[in-house]
Design a protein that fits this description.
alpha+beta, two-stranded parallel ribbon, about 35% helix
């Protein structure tokens, strides 16, 4: 008896079988790669935090992380404490750097004061540094970063990244010429009130010599992305001010 392979039933059965086979292969691949993906994400977060506190391999104006091989040991070397601040109370948590900032921010959208805040305390060149993660929205998608501060909330370093900003425009938030502008900028005003840092278009300080004006120069053609950086700095870092106020009072 001849098997007909040009029937509709044959095509449908073949398609169903292929869907199951391909689905099984994709599921197996995803499962087998999951530990490696998690490890890469862990190391990337360590690199980001280290970069913000000035532990990097920057050369010739480029932003360069420490290597993936060195990151875990350097993280242990430079990060002395990991904290999670909840309801104003800081607690030690050795895996605070793995916290999903996007989820934490979404969970506390109705009451930002209830948001869990990771904070990384490190020492470099004899100076104590406090690194906080921030998360926001750019022109097309998510933007995020890490900001390193001293006890007076003066920025000591920053790292920014994005998911889908425009190449050559908003994507430049992760370039050194932009990130380095934040070094030395004050997050507080002269009276000690939190003011944040505004990414300002056409400000009066294009060389960024005034570090107390709470402004850095914007990237040309990237107004909305710059506004997103401004917003996430002001909304997220403001939540850490009570912690720094407490430092001064103790």
């Amino acid at each position: 008896m001849e098997n007909r392979t040009d029937k509709n039933s044959y095509t449908i059965i073949f398609a169903i079988v292929m869907v199951f086979v391909v689905g099984a292969l994709l599921a197996f691949t995803a499962s087998s790669l999951k530990p490696r993906i998690a490890e890469n994400q862990r190391i990337e977060k360590q690199q980001n935090i280290l970069y913000a506190m000035g532990v990097n391999d920057n050369t010739d104006g480029s932003a360069v992380f420490v290597s993936t091989t060195d990151a875990p040991e350097l993280f242990k070397k430079y990060i002395t404490h990991q904290l999670v601040i909840e309801n104003g109370v800081p607690k030690e948590d050795n895996e605070a750097y793995l916290m999903d900032i996007k989820k934490e921010k979404a969970a506390a959208i109705s009451d930002p004061s209830k948001r869990r805040l990771p904070l990384f305390i490190g020492e470099k060149d004899g100076k104590k540094l406090y690194v906080a993660p921030i998360y926001g929205k750019g022109l097309w998608d998510a933007i995020w970063g890490y900001v390193s501060m001293d006890e007076n909330m003066v920025v000591q370093g920053a790292y920014f990244d994005h998911k889908g900003e425009t190449p050559g425009l908003g994507a430049n938030i992760k370039e050194r010429f932009f990130m380095d502008d934040f070094i030395g900028e004050h997050l507080l005003d002269a009276s000690g009130n939190f003011k944040g840092i505004t990414v300002a278009k056409g400000n009066a300080d294009p060389k960024n010599e005034d570090k107390t004006d709470n402004e850095v120069d914007a990237i040309a053609g990237a107004t909305i992305t710059g506004n997103g950086v401004t917003a996430m700095i002001k909304s997220d870092l403001k939540l850490y001010k009570p912690y720094f106020d407490n430092l001064k009072n103790n």
